[in-house]
Design goal:
heterotrimer, A: mainly alpha, 8 helices, C: mainly alpha, about 0% strand
Chain lengths: ~250, ~240, ~70
C-alpha cells in the first residue's frame, strides 16, 4: 500500500517531478496574479475612508500571509526531516527560507508605503509591522545558521531545530507584541487593513492570496530540484543526471 | 578531573544501572560547573561589568535629568540585562566542548536535557544572578522609586533565567562553530523579545503606579515553559553539534 | 482616464508597493533558476574531479601490479 508513496518520495522521481510541478503551479499562479491585479487596481471601488490607497492591500496582505505560511511550512518540513530522517523534507525546508525572507521584506515595504498616506509616517510601531520585522530576523537567523555549517546533514538538523523553536515562539512573540502595542497605542492610530470589506473588494484579495500560494509552491518546486540533486550527489541517478545521460524518473 | 561523575559511572559500565539518582546528578553537575565557573572568575564578572557599563552609557548619551532617567530606567535596565546575557552565552558550552566534557556527558546513561538544565542553572547563577542583584542598586541611580525597584528585581529574577534557557538553545546550536558570536545573537535575540517586553512593561506599570501582576505572572509562565522545553531542545541541538 | 490613473493622488505609493512586490516575485523566480544552475555546475565540476582522481588511482594500481 505504501509502495506508491515511496516511489513518489524517491529522489529521482521527486527530481523529475519538481521541474514539471514548478510549471504546473507557476502558470496558473501568473494567470491569477494578472486577474487579481486587474481586479484590485481597476475593478474594485475605492475605499470610502482610505480612497485608492487601500489598493495596497492586494499586495501587502498576500505577502504577509505568505511570509507566515512559509515559516510554518519550513518548521513542519524540518520536523518531518528530523523525525523520519527524510532528506526530501530537509530539502524543502532549506528551499523555503529565502523565499519566505523575500516575502517578509515585501510585506514590510508595502506596509511602510501604505503607512505613509494612512499614518503620515513610513514607520509606525504597529503590532503587525513589528511582528513582520521580527519574522525577518527569524529568517535571517535561520539562513545564517544554515550557511555556517559546512556539513549539509548538520546544517539540516541544526536549522530544523531552530525553525521548530522559532515556530513555537511565534505565537508568544505575536501576542506579546500586540499586548505591548495596546499599552502604547495613541488614539489617532488607524490600523492597516480593510474596514468592512465588500464583495467587489474581496474577490481580488482572495484571488491574489491563491495566486501567491500557487506561486510559492512553484518556486519551491524549482528550488527543491537543486537541493535534492545536491543531497543525492553520491547516488547513481544524480551522477547520470549530471552527466546528461538520463533525465531521471523516466523509468 | 574534568567530570568525576563521568569517570565514576561510564568507566565501570556504561550500560549498567545509573549509579546516581537524578537529583544527586543534578547537584554534582551544578556544583562542578559553579566551581569551574568561579575559577574563571574574570569570565563570570565580565557580564556583570558589561551590564554596569551599558547602564552607565545612557545618562551620558541622553541626559541626567531625574524625570527623564526615571522614565527610561525600566527599558534601559532590561536591555542591559538582555545584552549581558547575550554576551555571556558564548561561554555556556564552549569550554566543555573544548576539553571534552560535553562528549563525556553524551555517553552517560542519563537524560541529556536534565544535565543541560543543571549546566544552564549554574551559568545563570554565575552570570545572571549578579545582574539581578546589581539592578536595584543601579536603578537607584536612575531615581527609580522603591515600589518599582522591587518589581524590577522580581521581573529580572523571573525573566533572566528564561533568557539563559532560550540562550542555551542557541549556544547549543552554535557550539561547534568557529566565530559564531554574532550568529548566536541573531538566532536567540528574536526569541527573547517577549521576555524583554513583559519585564520592561511590568516595571513600567509599577512606575506608573499601576498593577504589574499580570505581566509578572506571564513571565513566570514563560519561565515554567522554558524550564520544561528548552533543555530538551538544547539537548537535541548539542547532539547535532557534537557530530 | 487620467483621473483614474492618478489614483486619487496615491499613484506613487501604489507604484512603489506593486513594483517592489513584482520585483520580489520575479527575483525569486530568477534566483531559483540561477541557484539550480549553480548547484548543477558545482556538482559537475566535483564529479569530473572525482573521476579524474579515480583514473589516476587506477593507473597507479596497475603500474604497481606490473612491477
Amino acid at each position: 500500500m505504501w509502495t506508491w508513496f515511496f516511489r513518489l518520495a524517491s529522489p529521482p522521481h521527486v527530481y523529475a517531478l519538481a521541474g514539471k510541478l514548478g510549471l504546473w503551479f507557476l502558470i496558473p499562479a501568473f494567470a491569477l496574479l494578472a486577474v487579481g491585479t486587474w481586479g484590485g487596481l481597476v475593478l474594485a471601488p475605492p475605499d470610502y475612508q482610505q480612497g485608492d490607497a487601500f489598493r495596497i492591500i492586494y499586495v501587502h496582505v498576500p505577502s504577509a500571509y505568505l511570509s507566515m505560511l512559509i515559516y510554518v511550512t519550513m518548521a513542519l518540513a524540518g520536523a518531518i526531516g528530523l523525525i523520519w530522517r527524510m532528506k526530501l523534507a530537509h530539502a524543502v525546508a532549506a528551499s523555503c527560507a529565502p523565499i519566505g525572507a523575500s516575502f517578509t521584506f515585501a510585506a514590510l515595504v508595502t506596509g511602510a508605503v501604505w503607512g505613509k498616506p494612512m499614518w503620515g509616517t513610513y514607520w509606525e510601531w504597529d503590532p503587525r509591522l513589528t511582528s513582520e520585522l521580527i519574522l525577518l530576523f527569524l529568517y535571517f537567523g535561520y539562513m545564517g545558521l544554515r550557511s555556517a555549517y559546512e556539513d549539509i546533514n548538520q546544517a539540516d538538523r541544526a536549522s530544523a531545530i531552530l525553525a521548530i523553536a522559532g515556530v513555537a515562539n511565534v505565537p508568544i512573540i505575536h501576542f506579546s507584541v500586540i499586548w505591548w502595542a495596546s499599552l502604547h497605542q495613541g488614539p489617532t492610530l488607524s490600523k492597516l487593513g480593510a474596514p468592512s470589506i465588500s464583495g467587489a473588494m474581496l474577490w481580488p484579495l482572495l484571488t491574489m492570496i491563491l495566486a501567491f500560494t500557487l506561486y510559492f509552491l512553484g518556486v519551491l518546486a524549482l528550488r527543491v530540484k537543486g537541493e535534492v540533486l545536491a543531497r543525492e550527489f553520491q547516488s547513481r541517478w544524480a551522477e547520470d543526471v549530471l552527466r546528461g545521460i538520463s533525465t531521471a524518473g523516466s523509468q | 578531573m574534568a567530570l568525576n561523575v563521568a569517570t565514576g559511572t561510564s568507566s565501570r559500565d556504561a550500560a549498567a544501572e545509573p549509579a546516581l539518582g537524578l537529583l544527586a546528578l543534578f547537584w554534582v553537575i551544578l556544583a562542578r560547573d559553579l566551581r569551574v565557573g568561579l575559577r574563571r572568575w574574570t569570565d563570570a564578572s565580565n557580564s556583570a561589568l558589561f551590564f554596569i557599563l551599558v547602564v552607565t552609557l545612557f545618562p551620558l548619551a541622553l541626559s541626567p535629568r531625574a524625570e527623564q532617567l526615571r522614565m527610561i530606567a525600566p527599558g534601559v535596565l532590561w536591555i542591559a540585562a538582555l545584552l549581558a546575557t547575550l554576551l555571556s552565552l558564548q561561554l555556556l558550552f564552549r569550554s566543555d566542548l573544548e576539553d571534552g566534557t560535553l562528549e563525556q556527558l553524551l555517553t552517560l546513561p542519563y537524560p541529556l536535557g536534565w544535565m543541560l538544565l543543571a549546566k544552564t542553572l549554574a551559568h545563570w547563577i554565575i552570570t545572571g544572578m549578579p545582574v539581578v542583584l546589581m539592578a536595584p542598586i543601579l536603578a537607584i541611580t536612575y531615581q527609580l522609586p522603591a515600589t518599582a525597584l522591587s518589581v524590577l528585581t522580581l521581573s529580572l529574577l523571573l525573566g533572566t533565567p528564561t533568557l539563559s534557557l532560550l540562550g542555551s538553545i542557541g549556544a547549543a546550536l552554535t557550539a561547534g562553530l568557529r566565530g559564531a558570536g554574532v550568529l548566536l545573537v541573531f538566532i536567540v535575540a528574536p526569541l527573547m523579545l517577549p521576555v524583554l517586553i513583559l519585564g520592561a512593561r511590568a516595571t513600567d506599570l509599577a512606575l506608573a503606579g499601576e498593577d504589574p501582576t499580570g505581566p509578572l505572572y506571564l513571565l513566570g509562565a514563560l519561565l515554567v515553559l522554558a524550564v520544561s522545553l528548552a533543555p530538551v531542545v538544547a539537548a537535541g541541538a548539542i547532539r547535532v553539534s557534537a557530530d | 482616464m487620467e483621473q483614474s490613473l492618478a489614483m486619487g493622488g496615491y499613484a506613487g505609493y501604489l507604484a512603489v508597493a506593486y513594483g517592489v512586490t513584482a520585483l520580489v516575485i520575479l527575483g525569486n523566480l530568477v534566483a531559483a533558476r540561477w541557484r539550480f544552475r549553480k548547484t548543477r555546475q558545482r556538482l559537475r565540476e566535483q564529479l569530473s574531479r572525482r573521476a579524474g582522481r579515480a583514473e589516476a588511482h587506477n593507473s597507479g594500481a596497475t603500474v604497481g601490479r606490473e612491477s
